[in-house]
Amino acid sequence: MDHLAELKEFALLHARGQGMAPRRVARILTGITNDTCGDPRSWAATWTREGRTAASHGRLLDACAHFALARFPHHGDPDRQAAGRLVVSTFDIWRERRRDIVRLELPFRDGTVACWATGLDAPRPRPLLVVMGGIVSVKEQWAPLLPLLGRLGFAAVVTEFPGVGENTVRHTPESWRLLPHLMDRLEGRAKVSDTSMLTLSFSGQLALRAATEDARIRRVLTVGAPVGAFFTDPRWWPRVPGITADTLCRLTGAPDRAALWSALPEHALTAQQLRRVRVPVRYVASGRDEIIPAGEQHLLRALPDLRVKTFDDVHGSPAHLAAMRRWLVSQLLLTRITGRRTAAVPATEEDSARTHPRTPTTLAPGERQS
Predict the structure, then answer these.
(1) How far apart are CA 127 and CA 189, in angstroms?
(2) Which of 27, 138, 139, 185 has the lowest tally of Cβ within 10 angstroms?
(3) Coil, strand, or helix at residue 360?
């Protein structure tokens, strides 16, 4: 598949995940003829133009979604960099009207990490919830959830994967240390001893690695996280979409895909490490995931307290976004309320997982989603 065709295919999925109407997305994609920086019919120029139109009509979050797609999959040229700045500035205008979301900028190693947050500095510190997207999603895609998370009683912080958006830190096998660093910096402003991680895709690997070392992490919820097989199985690498491979090259600094594949095994987690994660892990898998190999679930069984929800969908389950969010939020609240490694759940399709917590629970295509 050529580069532009792959961009358009992935855009349909990411646009759906941001609530865009499929017909509108199809119309926009029809007008894109190239990915040449500076061309008015290019990828970045077209999405940026649509975003500016939405902003001019006061639809600021809609504009953010368009700007996020304009910089997709990463800020690799001046047009995409400009779109990335527009995402941030437009979201900033939206959140200033609400006054319940604040901006944080934290130094980390050789770079800076930016966050949007709510619920900090409460008279009684609230439990901390850290939300981090994957390798192609900026924090502004998830930040609109902050008011809801605040109402649920959390001090919530939305940030970005190393190298993505405003996170200027290069991604390395030690990137997981960003999460304990974030907790350190929020000590006193939130109850960091009770921290939940809602970490999507590749950031799920960071959260699991951090949970092997930091007891302040009390639960990990993730969607389509690579764990071991993605990083170590050379038979899988030729199937990885070009956009994913090229984005990882940019985030890690690998000069080409061959160098990337050589370096990836350093990121893999082992069964011995996962057995040290003594907290609930709730994992959403996609039955037709084109990025994460199905073999990851075999390694995940090393986790002492695991539940897996499988949707018949591609990576990130964009066609099941509402059901996925309901399940993740319900599991977040259940594991907090019980305070035990295995949450009590109603007598549903989760029963086998409650009795045997190491056994992933899946739904066949067509079954009811909880």
Answers:
(1) 10
(2) 27
(3) coil
Per-residue buried b or exposed e for 207-243, using 16+ beta carbons within 10 Å of the residue's own CB:
bbbbbbebebbbbbbbbbbbbbbbbbbeebbeebbeb
Are the beta carbons of 207 and 273 closer than 8 angstroms? no
Most confident among 108-112, 342-346, 348-352 (mean pLDDT): 108-112
pLDDT bracket for residue 1 (50, 70, 90): low
- Predicted local confidence at residue 356, as pLDDT: 34
| Per-residue model confidence (pLDDT) at position 359 | 37
| Residue 218: per-residue pLDDT | 97
Beta bridge partners of 191: 127
Q: What is the C-alpha to C-alpha distance for residues 178 and 169, in angstroms, rounded to an integer? A: 9
Q: Do the strands 191-200 and 217-223 form a parallel or antiparallel pair, or are they unpaired?
A: parallel
Q: How confident is the model at residue 339 (pLDDT cuts 50, 70, 90)?
A: low
Q: Tell me the C-alpha distance between 322 and 140, whole Å.
A: 18
CA 240, CA 245: separation in Å to the nearest integer? 7
> In this structure, are residues 331 and 342 in contact, taking their beta carbons and an 8 Å threshold?
no
Q: What is the rounded distance in angstroms from the CA atom of residue 283 to the CA atom of residue 328?
A: 9
Strand order in the sheet with 306-311: 102-108, 111-118, 155-159, 127-132, 191-200, 217-223, 281-286, 306-311
Residue 149 has pLDDT above 70, yes or no: yes
Contacts 24+ apart (CB under 8 A), 88-96: 88/114, 88/140, 88/165, 88/166, 90/51, 90/55, 90/60, 90/63, 90/64, 91/60, 91/61, 91/64, 91/116, 91/140, 91/143, 93/60, 94/60, 94/61, 94/64, 95/143
Six-digit token string for 16: 């759906």
| Continuous H helices in the chain | 3-17, 22-30, 43-56, 60-70, 78-96, 146-151, 178-186, 202-211, 229-232, 242-252, 257-263, 271-274, 296-300, 321-338, 351-355
Looking at residue 265, what is its pLDDT? 97
341 DSSP assignment: S
